[in-house]
Amino acid sequence: MRKKIKYSFSVILIATFLLTLAACNKDSQTKPSTKKLEKIRVAEVTRSIFYAPEYVALEKGFFKDEGLDVQLMTTAGGDKTMTTLLSGGADIALVGSETSIYVYAQGSSDPVINFAQLTQTDGTFLVSRKQIDNFSWDQLKGSTFLGQRKGGMPQMVGEFVLKKHGIDPHKDLNLIQNIDFANIANAFAAGTGEFVQLFEPTASIFEKEGKGHIVASFGKESGHVPYTSFMTKQSYMKDHKAIVESFTRAIYKAQQWVKNHTSEEIAKAVQPYFPDTDPGIIKTVVERYKSQGSYATDPILDEEEWSNLQNIMKEAGELPKEVDYKTLVNTEIAKKVMIK
């Protein structure tokens, strides 16, 4: 009888232990993590499928995995984006690398440092109002061309490509470039210009709606260039090096994810950031950018790309001064996060 009592008591103890363990496991599964995420304010120069890896990092939780709560804002135009960064309205900016050169040339005591490249080609396309079956660049001569804002990367790359094809943008065209970045597409839709330089998905949307026809890619024509990079003030990088490293690691994970997944999978991942855009258009745009190598597969901005950038700026007459690669580019963190 005593053995039976001991046996029953042991069973009760084991059952109680298992129930307690199960309850603990249930609590750990239902209670949110108490780890506090570090808030990071990121200003992007525009909302574009061109920046797909950034949205993948957000949607797939790569930033949260690194302990970051990224608060994304869109500040239309390079000048506005840089102003937001310099005034303390953002911690990190996604914008053309040329803006860091402009800031440095003005004698800034706290220069802006490029630490992670996102795109490595121009992201604009030449759109014609009329359909052209056999396009050649010399067909632009004598036309009214609606270009991008003077001093920005789209405009400089656009002029670089035109000159490459023997076209003087200021003599051979009626060049319009005094329209604000956010209103260029609307101006073309309203009837201004015979040709326009547009980002995606606007170019593909116009094509689908019959407002224009994509006839060439400026990205294919211009070669590799640090078109858009993540950058921050030198002081922020010094005081928050761990945060910048975590941020860069998340971007690299996203870049590799984009590299290893199909255009359809990428389009599905970034869809929430383009709720008003047809999923088919998003897929088409992603495929177009991916096929021409626009998405950088790692965050390193190399010296050759930096040199190409300054050559393009010089050709456009917009380079205020030559700036050494190591002065405004930091690849130390990018290289570190790539080590497995």
TrEMBL record:
Pfam families xrefs: NMT1
Signal peptide bounds: 1-22
Superkingdom to which the source organism belongs: Bacteria
Record PROSITE patterns: PROKAR_LIPOPROTEIN
Keyword annotations from UniProtKB, A to Z: Signal
Segments crossing the lipid bilayer: none
Compartment(s) of residence: Periplasm
Major subcellular site: periplasm
Gene Ontology CC terms: periplasmic space
InterPro entries per record: SsuA/THI5
Residue span(s) of domain SsuA/THI5-like: 52-262
Family: Belongs to the bacterial solute-binding protein SsuA/TauA family.
Protein name per the record: ABC transporter, substrate-binding protein
Organism of this sequence: Neobacillus massiliamazoniensis
